[in-house]
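Quarterly update from the structural biology core.
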Amino acid sequence: QVQLAESGGGLVQAGDSLRLSCAASGGTFSYDAAGWFRQAPGKEREFVTTIRWSDGIAYPADAVKGRFVISRDNVQNTVSLQMNSLKPEDTAVYYCAAGRYSNRPGDYNSWGQGTQVTVSS
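Predicted structure, tokenized:
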């Protein structure tokens, strides 16, 4: 099972952009997909977007459509999340995950430790 490690979180202002990265290590990335989820205090973990590893087909949640873009590098075994036009409601801990091509957390087998994104108004 590969290990995932996120980086790139931080404190930004509304309207700013931020790029998160997730590096996979410890083995070959043999999963169907890599995804990003987020969890705000007091809320359940929420699907953000996912990308199918074989062909790069992705789909985002409605809340981030048109603002967030996921990409993957299947040579470097990394997946990135470009977040534009950030809003205060995007504030959360963001998690990278690997598993099936799905919007359900239960379909993902491997998770990173998370990185905090805070958007001030």
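Residues 5 and 113 are 7 Å apart (CA to CA).
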